[in-house]
Amino acid sequence: MRTNVTEFILLGLTQDPEKQKIVFAVFLLFYTATLLGNLLIIVTIKTSPTLGSPMYFFLTYLSIADSCFSTATAPKLIVDNLSHKNTISFDECMTQLFAMHFFGCMEILVLILMAYDRFVAICKPLHYSVIMNQRMCRILILLAWVVAFLHSTAQIILILSVPFCGPNVIDHYFCELQPLLRLGCMDTYVLNLLIVFNSGAICSVGFLLLMISYTIILNSLRNHSGKGKRKALSTCSSHIIVVIMFFGPCIFIYTRPPTTFPLDKLVSVFYTIITPFLNPLIYTLRNAEVKNAMKMLRSTQVTSGDK
User: Fold this and answer.
1) Which element (helix H / strand E) includes 293?
2) Do residues 162 and 189 lie in contact, with contact meaning Cβ atoms separated by under 8 Å?
3) Beta-carbon neighbour count of residue 218 at 10 Å?
């Protein structure tokens, strides 16, 4: 790789000083709430004896992925809206790119594992405890980490093969693949196709698998009792909402020909900032077991404080 560029300039969401103050305040609030919300979920699941099922084991890792995924972009976006020159070094840019794709892919894979868990629980209830035992859950999470690492490594290898010899202004608020490739001093058409095949395939295949699994699950619920049906519908509907919110923007960004649109930055905000913020709300407000466990955790803390 031959490159003369040591740093990139990020244009951010806006260059208007007044709007930058608004962006700073809004996204600081979103990011803080994201960390606190996901931390609350992790602590609740780890301390509650009633949340020991595989679904909550996977939910813990979804919260970890959400927190790290948001951390890959939000702090830089927040800080840049207070500074006059929004630069990022070449190495920091590659690190951010790796973290984005690693934790983004991890989130996709955990969502697939959660759908598989619900599929087994609803469609094969008699074999659930045998299939989804603790050892199998740990193996599945380990495989998810490995696949996410391979995916993000492949993306870094592709971008490192591009020489950067002049322009260094990225029209985005983080180091994203498409804007970076536009700065390369070579024909990047083939690389764009490889990136679409890599990221685009993960998003599209993941979304397709999830929609098929939830279609089968919802179809099988017709044979369940009223109470069990309502509980399963509540759980699955929460998952489906998360899937649509996360995969919609991802598919829009990563499954199209090599081009960029002004709308890209706003769409990216949705899956990098908004979705990690909303996930804790969705999984608490629509899940009675989690809400009850949080109430128990709070009452335990109050009791301990009184003592």
Assistant:
1) helix 288-306
2) no
3) 15
Give the pTM: 0.89
Cα→Cα distances 100→72, 93, 149, 168, 221, Å: 6, 11, 11, 20, 36
Count the neighbouring beta carbons within 10 Å of the beta carbon of residue 222.
Answer: 7
| Phi, psi torsion values for 180, nearest 5 degrees | -65, -45
Measured CA to CA, the distance from residue 255 to residue 197 in angstroms comes to 8
What is the secondary structure of 102-115 as a DSSP string?
HHHHHHHHHHHHHH
Cα separation, 95 vs 90, in Å, equals 9
Residues near 255 by beta carbon (within 8 Å), at least 6 away in sequence: 196, 200, 203, 204
Cα four-point dihedral sign 63, 283, 294, 126: negative
Read off the DSSP letter of residue 196. I
Structure tokens at 151: 């995916």
Between the alpha carbon of residue 223 and those of residues 117, 119, 127, 134, 226, the distances in Å are 19, 14, 18, 28, 9
Instruction: List the pLDDT tens digit at each of the 307 positions of the chain.
Output: 556 788 899 988 888 888 889 999 999 999 999 999 999 999 989 888 888 889 899 999 999 999 999 999 999 999 998 886 789 999 999 999 999 999 999 999 999 998 899 889 888 888 898 999 999 999 999 999 999 999 999 999 989 888 888 788 888 899 988 888 888 888 878 888 888 788 888 888 989 988 888 888 888 877 666 666 676 677 777 778 888 888 888 888 888 766 667 788 888 888 889 889 988 888 777 777 887 888 887 777 656 555 5
Closest CA to 270 of 243, 250, 299: 250
Structure tokens at 131: 């299939």
What CA–CA distance (Å, rounded) separates 148 from 198?
Answer: 11
